[in-house]
Amino acid sequence: MAKDRLGTYRAKRDFTASPEPTGGRGRGTRHVLRYCIQKHLASHLHYDFRLEHHGVLLSWAVPKGPSLDPAVKRLAMHVEDHPYDYGDFEGIIPSGYGAGIVMLWDSGTWSPEVDDVDAALSAGELKFSLHGAKLKGSWVLVRSSGRFGGERGWLLIKHRDAWAGDLVITEQAPHSVKSGGDFPDILAAEDPVIWESHRPAKGGVAGALFTDIIAEAVRIKSARRAPRAIRTRAHRTKVRG
User: 128-148 burial string, b = 16+ CB within 10 Å, else e?
Assistant: First the structure.
């Protein structure tokens, strides 16, 4: 079943160019359900919200990211299922579909608050609990009935509990739970084509953000090279002496 559900995911990608997982690794014998959010700077900045179900990751793109305020309803656009092993992915998609920088912003497990997840999804209201590094407690995904986002539109809403509040979690906790870094750190760790002519965002807010990120990544890489250069010169001086 999981393999069939990944047809759309695979059809959109060229795995000879993209480092994204093809979906070859399954969930093994674990009995807990994976949850993750990937902060994705592509043609625009958004947060990819993913819940494991039937061996794949059900996925929604949340443009403004999650909110801990129960009064705030975040648009969540339903997208294609992703493979289970996508839950570990962080890095650069140099070109093609989704080209940009992907950060593993949050990860953990989730548990449904309904008896039948498939029935809840069909009915357009899935209640669940998150047990992540950043997001916790009770939440709900509600189909927007076409008012927002058309047929693919859902709303991600935090329930009132001990984990709710007015903290802007996307601003207060912006870094990766995998590497501890931000976008420039992820970019500086690699040498992708995206540095040069294939930036996915060339204008607007996302384009300006990419320009700043690339400049900061260059600074980080230069700072890393500098100590090596100093040590090399010192070693040569010592050898000559």
Answer: bbbebebbbbbbbbbbbeeee
Written as six digits, the tokens of 203 are 């204008």
- The pLDDT profile of the chain, 241 residues, written as one tens digit per residue, is 344 677 776 676 666 666 666 666 555 545 789 999 999 998 889 999 999 999 999 999 999 999 999 999 999 999 999 999 999 999 888 777 778 899 999 999 999 999 999 999 999 999 999 999 999 999 999 999 777 768 889 999 999 999 999 999 999 999 999 999 999 998 888 655 455 544 555 656 667 777 788 788 888 878 877 655 445 454 454 545 5
SS (H, E, C) the chain: CHHHHCHHHHHCCCCCCCCCCCCCCCCCCCCCEEEEEEEEECCCEEEEEEEEECCEEEEEEECCCCCCCCCCCEEEEEEEEEEHHHHHCCEEECCCCCCEEEEEEEEEEEEECCCCHHHHHHHCEEEEEEEECCCEEEEEEEECCCCCCHHHEEEEEECCCCCCCCCCHHHHCCCCCCCCCCHHHHHHCCCCHHHCCCCCCCCHHHHHHHHHHHHHHHHHHHHHHHHHHHHHHHHHHHHHC
